[in-house]
Amino acid sequence: MKIGNFDLKKDGVYIIAELSANHNGNLQTALDTIKAAKEIGANAIKLQTYTADCMTLDCKKDDFIIKGGTLWDGKTLYDLYKEACTPWEWHKELFEYAKDIGIDIFSSPFSKEAVDFLEEFNPPAYKIASFEITDYELVRYTASKMKPIIISTGIATIDEIQDVVDICREVGNNDIVLLKCTSAYPAPLDEANLKMIPNLAETFGVIAGFSDHTLGSTAPIVAVTLGAKVIEKHFILDKSIGGADADFSMDKEEFSAMIKAIRDTEKLLGKIDYTMTPQKRKSRQFSRSLYVAEDIKEGEIVTEKNVRSVRPGYGLHPKYLGDILGKKSIKDLKVGTACNLELFL
Q1: Residue 6 banded pLDDT, cuts 50, 70, 90
Q2: How many domains does the chain have?
Q3: What is the rounded CA–CA span in Å between residue 13 and residue 269?
Q4: Where is the domain boundary, 215, 250, 269?
Q5: Is the pTM of this model over 0.85?
Q6: DSSP state of 188
Q7: N or C end of the chain: smaller count of CB under 10 Å?
């Protein structure tokens, strides 16, 4: 499965810098953030494409006021989304700029109209946000565009996850990535449940990844060790600009350090390989082998005293000690002679 030119099965971990509301209403900040994401080595920048009207109602009734200990308590849903949205008139310039500098760019649509709008820019993938996973018609319509579809599973039941995977496959789209996600901002470490990452891949027969809202880079690094092929994290140019998502976003220095740690983790994980590499072969000089430990006369019997397993490793493999014990030397042997089977009868 590829996103753009990136092969998720061969090219390592695909790292997405989530712009979200971190443009803080300024187009140049959005452009600068895309440039910074490219400079630090992110594979993609991701937008969110919605209007407040497609998300909710402009209503001040209690149901529409945010509460429950979030960063946005007291605001209406409408006011939050109006503040945080990426203006649609910016999209053309953002997509063109990202393509010009060589970083993938795509978005999370929150309506069928947003999907149609994004299709004008031929994105390499689509993302379904965790709170939209229950909008089956949006999932179906997005999947029908036959682009890789990345789905956050934050609030979903196992049945709902199965439903959206089935919906994608029903329309003929098998390029599915499920992201483990904890829909809290920021997310507590003890609610990350990263063991679900390999389980998502196995249970649903898809590629699995991690959309991270924890603070710091520990969780994404651990996710990679558990098989995550996609990592998504909120990215902000500078936390001092503030905004709806600033408190749980990584700045350029933090995000860069996370990317380096992930790439180092990939190197550390390596591959399953039992072959004798040149480096392994060279290092075997420091292993043990059988050497003459005391001078041995011709015809003298080999004992555990006059032949020992010692370093270096140029002599006979220690596994042959039992084979030569009790045999006689065919000639005089000095201390430090590397043993071989032909020396004893």
Answers
A1: very high
A2: 2
A3: 12
A4: 269
A5: yes
A6: P
A7: C
